[in-house]
Amino acid sequence: MLSEKIGVIGAGKIGSALVRGILRAGVVDKTRIIASAPRPQARAALAAETGVETTAANPAVCEFSDIVILAVKPQVLDAVLQEIAGSVTPDKLVVSVAAGATIKRIEDRLTSGGRVIRVMTNTPCVIGAAASCYSKGTRATEADMKKVGLILSSVGLALPLEERCLDAVTGLSGSGPAYLFLFIEALADGGVQAGLPRDVALKLALQTVYGSAKLAMESGKHLGQLKDEVTSPGGTTIAGLYALEQKGFRGTVMEAVASATRRSQELGKGH
């Protein structure tokens, strides 16, 4: 439980999910949260669902809050920082979830002060299953890190990490859900091609990915060992794995992560 008041600038999918997670976990109660969004429909929907105060004025969020969460897209981050800079005093903790936006970029624009922590999370936070990492800015404290860890843990896994690694986190877990959705869709398509009804193929694909991830997390076994336990000599699984390797499956996935990492670095430079 935190004694601070929390503000969320950008009550979209990620921002709204953080509000719900904070309330669900009892980090603070609804009277200690405020959220802003440019669209009246988004504000009304969040207020109706959670009972928190909402506003269209980003500076008002800063004035109310001790902890300000910037849940905005990197393309609009600079404009938001310019808008709120005068309201962010040195006693404020600013938490950014904008992909690719470096701590230096944020600190340089908060000319009147403010302690900064940078976060990379992903869309499964909307169901409380996020994979998040967070890094400490030059003015932030270890106490600040603990508070952010508590907030992020309300929506899933949260790991402290050096900022130099956050672009790679973006490429892996930030963009990773899209890779997995594509893989699940392809897995189901393969089932349909093999003769399964579409609804059955999709249910099997979803449960297979979910069950495999759960087994890997709970068994403590190396992924290679788990793979080998499914793979009989001369059997069906090794035939499927051989087909994947022939098409460069591993290398393609690795390059997807590398490409997304490079794009995160470009966004961090304002490109």
Write out key terms for the chains shown.
271 residues, alpha/beta, Rossmann fold, 2 domains, eight-stranded mixed beta sheet, 12 helices, elongated
Characterise this structure.
- The protein has helices at 13-25, 40-50, 58-64, 74-84, 103-109, 142-153, 166-174, 176-193, 198-219, 223-230, 236-246, 249-268; strands at residues 6-9, 33-36, 53-55, 67-70, 93-96, 115-120, 130-136, 156-160.
- The chain is of the alpha/beta class and 271 residues long.
- It has an 8-stranded mixed β-sheet, with helices on both faces.
- Helix 7 (166-174) crosses helix 12 and helix 8 (176-193) packs across helix 9.
- The protein is elongated.
Summarize the helices and strands and which ones pair or pack:
Elements: E1 6-9, H1 13-25, E2 33-36, H2 40-50, E3 53-55, H3 58-64, E4 67-70, H4 74-84, E5 93-96, H5 103-109, E6 115-120, E7 130-136, H6 142-153, E8 156-160, H7 166-174, H8 176-193, H9 198-219, H10 223-230, H11 236-246, H12 249-268
Parallel strand pairs: 1-2, 1-4, 2-3, 4-5, 5-6, 7-8
Antiparallel strand pairs: 6-7
Helix pairs in contact: 7-12, 8-9
What is the average per-residue confidence, as pLDDT, rounded to a whole number? 95
Strand-and-helix sequence, N→C?
EHEHEHEHEHEEHEHHHHHH
CATH topology of the largest domain: Rossmann fold
**Radius of gyration, CA atoms, in whole angstroms:** 21 Å
* Computed structural class: alpha/beta
Low-confidence stretches: none
Identify the overall geometry.
elongated
The helicity comes to 40-55%
What's the CATH H-level homologous superfamily of the largest domain? NAD(P)-binding Rossmann-like Domain
Number of helices: 12
What is the count of structural domains? 2
